[in-house]
Inverse folding.
């Protein structure tokens, strides 16, 4: 029975930080960054982390019944709390779903994908990164934030899985100790010569032979390594048909454990039926996975997303959103946002999953879900069944842009959102700009960070309204 | 149908502190300042007070919980004292407690005190507060100006009135209140402003600028209420009587049901209709000689004119600009300067409004005295437009 990739989806944050803006900010101290100043990096909003990025990727896929959900990241917000379990709640998945967090290597995404393809079959594997880098570093100008979700299954929707091989090597080209914010890396030339170049030629030829894959069929190589390294590898492996131009490199940046999967997503989006894609995760060894494209595209337009976004040159905001400068947000920011975990647990399907209620007596949908129906004509008691709001489109009934409220991205924009079916919710907006909102605008729902409890090192998540692009005039 | 409160209770004395940044005054000091005036006005002895209600809102940085701070500050004779809190209607709630106690016959004379010490927070605006363990998980971190500012966007859309036009009407409201406050020595802000200043003020929450917002201040106000016979026994010639006291509290419809348009305050409509019936008012525009409404923000006052039935739906901007609510208009609004010039020490505001109506009815309002007032109305709107507490008080002369 064949197994493969049924579908995949990419989520990239709206803002794309122009690399030249980073280089210009540091020209006084690190003029050499100018040479890296072409292109842009996908940059998470202040309310996005690897969990919300992952969520945004996953929800684009019609998952069907899953056996497991694997969350992969090296920039996960918690050291001890299952992000996969949180994601399962936020995706309103059944409680019996097996969940797993995979971390600690840039191979996290490929390793989890390999596990899914050789074991679970019906898995959702998502790799997401929002890594920090020191201001002025090469990493800062190179890193991007991204998430890629892959649905594996027993039908090869967009790619057939051919086979895979792995190696484990304690090659420490970079590391990040527990609790540290930044990577510590070694010289790129050593990484290339001793790490990235030697291992693949030891693994790939045997794998190809074992599965009777001919060199001429291999048209794509997705690997978290620079283009020049991939070119050199292809040459050494006599894989002369490979197209090495990866669009995401100039539009997204290096995205850690999500990068091999983002490369795979781009390759499969561009591949023709029969093309073989080599997907390589590099990080203390290699994961090498072979796929054969079916020619069917992912259900979302990966390339449009990669090339889209809004260019940003505001370096100070970039630093602030990543917590790398300590802005004075005034005394309102001192507000205590301690979470009563017991209250959250009671209501977690409403908060994480955005599951409100629908009154069986009158059909009114409402959030929050309560025991007594909110419809003034109804008021029935204990008639509400869970009703998901996550995929609903709302209409802006009223809004403000609040300069007094604390927000890491002032002004805080929020308003009353009306929903067809009877609901109204006062919601925060995100991924929009001052002056862009009008009454009557259509908004979609996005799972985001609500706030940070800096006293107790906690963060809360809820849903926010984002403009539906193209839904409004002007 | 209940009888209602009309003419069952008289106001025999009122006091109001100077409102403002009272850096040198504690909440207790402010209560004493208001009380000294009130008890002197009533002409009774402190020991004649049989019960008291304290209205105070913020716990976060104020006088703490319970009614003890009032009993302590005034050294009340160990009588029942109850603390009440109901958002911006808190002062009116204290008044309602005292009035209902007298009306029930439980006591002859009762005190209502409202106080708030806001200027110990160290920053402008109101202190941050929690909405409870559940709602803090999902409600936006909104502010009062941001919450009320939304009335403007919804009103503009609902009535097809451009934001520029609406903002000019809103500016007229602030200019009018400042002109009134200039004549009130107890007001916090005592300076005239013009429309251009309002329109060009720094933004607070779209479309509100700083001069669309009421001040933030410290203050206290109190009322001493009694059975009308006691007022007569005290030799009061003109007796001010409670004509109506109504509250309406949101039950989640505005917050969670799409039937609310976001452009009006439902509870104000409900409370005022009940209050007019209780007071026997059938034509509020003609019968109300003055109104003190909850002008926390200019847009609130504008929208409330329609909710009180003083303007037709969509007609408030034109009525405002035509001067209907100016000092020399048909229904003078905020003749004392309003929240706009007094600021809004939450617990005190409802009683401060009643204080102005009381002065006007007794002809003691000096430079701002109006004439021929039969009824004066007070209105508080606590919370935010989609979940709030509206209170209406109506005072008039005892027949």
């Amino acid at each position: 029975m064949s197994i493969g990739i049924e579908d995949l989806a990419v989520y990239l944050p709206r803002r794309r930080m122009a690399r030249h803006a980073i280089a210009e900010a540091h020209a006084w101290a690190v003029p050499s960054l100018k040479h890296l100043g072409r292109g842009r990096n996908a940059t998470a909003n202040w309310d996005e982390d690897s969990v919300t990025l992952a969520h945004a990727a996953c929800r684009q896929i019609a998952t069907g019944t899953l056996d497991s959900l694997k969350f992969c990241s090296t920039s996960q917000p918690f050291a001890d709390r299952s992000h996969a379990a949180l994601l399962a709640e936020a995706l309103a998945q059944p409680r019996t779903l097996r969940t797993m967090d995979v971390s600690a290597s840039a191979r996290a995404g490929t390793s989890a994908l390999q596990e899914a393809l050789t074991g679970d079959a019906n898995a959702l594997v998502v790799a997401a990164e929002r890594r920090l880098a020191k201001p002025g570093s090469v990493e800062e100008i190179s890193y991007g934030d991204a998430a890629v979700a892959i649905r594996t299954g027993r039908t090869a929707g967009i790619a057939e899985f051919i086979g895979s091989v792995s190696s484990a090597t304690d090659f420490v080209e970079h590391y990040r100790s527990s609790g540290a914010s930044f990577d510590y890396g070694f010289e790129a030339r050593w990484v290339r010569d001793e790490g990235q170049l030697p291992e693949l030629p030891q693994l790939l030829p045997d794998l190809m032979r074992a599965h009777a894959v001919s060199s001429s069929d291999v048209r794509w190589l997705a690997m978290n390594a620079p283009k020049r390294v991939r070119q050199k590898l292809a040459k050494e492996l006599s894989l002369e048909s490979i197209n090495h131009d990866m669009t995401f490199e100039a539009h997204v940046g290096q995205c850690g454990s999500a990068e091999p999967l983002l490369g795979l997503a781009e390759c499969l989006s561009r591949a023709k039926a029969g093309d073989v894609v080599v997907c390589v995760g590099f990080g203390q060894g290699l994961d090498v996975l072979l796929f054969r494209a079916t020619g069917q595209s992912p259900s979302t337009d990966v390339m449009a997303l990669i090339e889209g976004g809004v260019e940003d040159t505001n370096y100070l905001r970039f630093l602030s959103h990543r917590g790398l400068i300590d802005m004075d947000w005034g005394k309102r920011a001192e507000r205590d946002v301690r979470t009563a975990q017991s209250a959250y647990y009671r209501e977690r399907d409403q908060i994480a999953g955005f599951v409100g209620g629908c009154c069986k007596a009158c059909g009114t949908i409402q959030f929050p879900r309560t025991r007594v129906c909110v419809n003034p004509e109804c008021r029935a008691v204990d008639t509400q069944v869970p009703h998901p709001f996550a995929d609903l489109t709302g209409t802006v009934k009223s809004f403000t842009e609040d300069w007094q409220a604390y927000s890491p991205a002032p002004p805080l924009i929020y308003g009353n959102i009306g929903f067809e079916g009877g609901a109204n919710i006062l919601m925060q907006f995100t991924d929009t700009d001052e002056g862009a909102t009008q009454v009557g605008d259509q908004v979609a729902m996005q799972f985001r960070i609500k706030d940070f409890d800096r006293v107790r090192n906690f963060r809360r998540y809820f849903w926010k309204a984002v403009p539906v692009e193209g839904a409004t005039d002007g | 149908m209940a009888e209602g409160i009309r003419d069952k209770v008289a106001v025999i004395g009122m006091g109001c502190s100077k409102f403002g940044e009272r850096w040198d005054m504690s909440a207790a000091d402010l209560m004493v300042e208001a009380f000294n005036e009130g008890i002197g006005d009533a002409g009774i002895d402190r020991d004649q007070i049989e019960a008291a209600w304290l209205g105070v809102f913020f716990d976060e940085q104020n006088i703490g919980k319970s009614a003890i701070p009032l009993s302590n500050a005034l050294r009340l004779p160990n009588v029942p004292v109850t603390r009440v809190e109901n958002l911006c209607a808190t002062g009116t709630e204290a008044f309602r407690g005292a009035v209902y106690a007298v009306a029930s016959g439980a006591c002859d004379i009762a005190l209502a005190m409202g106080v708030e010490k806001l200027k110990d927070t160290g920053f402008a605006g109101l202190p941050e507060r929690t909405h409870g363990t559940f709602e803090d998980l999902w409600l936006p971190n909104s502010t009062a100006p941001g919450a009320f500012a939304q009335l403007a966007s919804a009103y503009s859309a609902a009535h097809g009135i451009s934001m520029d036009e609406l903002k000019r009407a809103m500016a007229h409201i602030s200019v009018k209140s400042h002109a009134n406050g200039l004549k009130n020595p107890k007001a916090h802000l005592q300076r005239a402003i013009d429309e251009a200043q309002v329109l060009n003020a720094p933004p607070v929450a779209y479309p509100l600028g700083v001069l669309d917002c009421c001040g933030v201040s410290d203050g206290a106000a109190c009322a001493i209420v009694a059975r009308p016979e006691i007022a007569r026994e005290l030799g009061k010639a003109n007796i001010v009587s409670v004509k109506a006291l109504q509250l309406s509290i949101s039950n989640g419809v505005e917050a969670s049901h799409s039937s609310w348009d976001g452009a009006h305050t439902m509870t104000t409509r409900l409370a005022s209709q009940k209050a007019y019936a209780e007071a026997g008012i059938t034509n509020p525009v003609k019968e109300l000689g003055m109104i003190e409404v909850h002008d926390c923000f200019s847009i609130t006052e504008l929208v409330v004119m329609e909710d009180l039935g003083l303007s037709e739906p969509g007609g408030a901007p034109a009525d405002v600009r035509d001067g209907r609510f100016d000092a020399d208009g048909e229904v003078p609004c905020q003749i004392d300067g309003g929240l706009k010039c007094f600021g809004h020490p939450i617990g005190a505001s409802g009683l401060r409004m009643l204080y102005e109506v009381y002065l006007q009815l007794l002809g003691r309002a000096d430079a701002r005295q109006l004439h021929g007032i039969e009824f004066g109305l007070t209105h508080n709107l606590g919370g935010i437009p989609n979940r709030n507490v509206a209170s209406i008080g109506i005072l008039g002369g005892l027949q």
About this structure: Residues 400 and 413 of chain A are 6 Å apart (CA to CA).
